[in-house]
Amino acid sequence: MIHVKTKIDRADKDLIAELGTFSAATIHEAQGRKGSLHPAIKPIDRDMKFCGSAFTVKCHPRDNLMLQVAISYAQPGDVLIVSSGDQAAGQFGDVLANACVARGIAALVTDGGVRDTREIRELGFPVFSKHVYIEGTVKESLGPINHPLVFGEQVIYPGDVVKGDCDGVVVIRREEVAEAIELSRARDEAEAGYIERYKRGETPLEVSNLTALLEAKGLVVE
């Protein structure tokens, strides 16, 4: 029996919005360098970004039946995480992108393929995919919705928070969002301080206190 879960626990909307103000790279570093999806999953437009709750769906290769089911049940602010067996076929295009926009869905992230990218870019709906390919799909096979997924070299649970931008996509556990915000804020503040020191003429050796480390490793500078 294939199980579709329509009700999931989500993080507080205000916390999701606040987390979304930080870059994916900052969040990744701040939470201990964890949660980054495989770099092959990229935005179809570098200006695209999003932050929302993971709504997971497993599709069979070259089949988008369950993606259409997921779009029908996803809530505003959700991010569709679509596992399709790393197949390139274009399971998502401008027609379904319009359906997502109408339903308030925040973004789509897939290890499969998409097409109609020009129209999707003009629509402004964030899409992150591994492939762009004109081949279409069928609607035949069932698959689970809102079950944990092994996706992009990470395990994603329904309701996890997902942030994406031009540098990549990072996953944050739902129960760790508040902590990730504080850690990300502290990292941004620290990096702003580093930049000011560089502007004053200090070197990376001084700003990052690297001299002792380099000496311990045996570096000789003549």
β content, as a range? 15-25%
Number of strands: 10
Shape: elongated
Q: How many helical elements? A: 8
The appropriate CATH architecture of the largest domain is 3-Layer(bba) Sandwich
Span between termini: 70 Å
Radius of gyration: 20 Å
Q: Predict the CATH topology of the largest domain.
A: Glucose Oxidase, domain 1
Fraction in helix: 25-40%
Reported for the largest beta sheet, the result is: 8 strands, mixed
Identify low-pLDDT runs: none
Instruction: Quote the average pLDDT.
Output: 97
Compute the number of structural domains. 2
CATH class of the largest domain: Alpha Beta
Order of helices and strands: HHEEHEEHEHEEEEEHHH
Helix/sheet category: alpha/beta
State the fourth-level CATH superfamily of the largest domain. Ribonuclease E inhibitor RraA/RraA-like
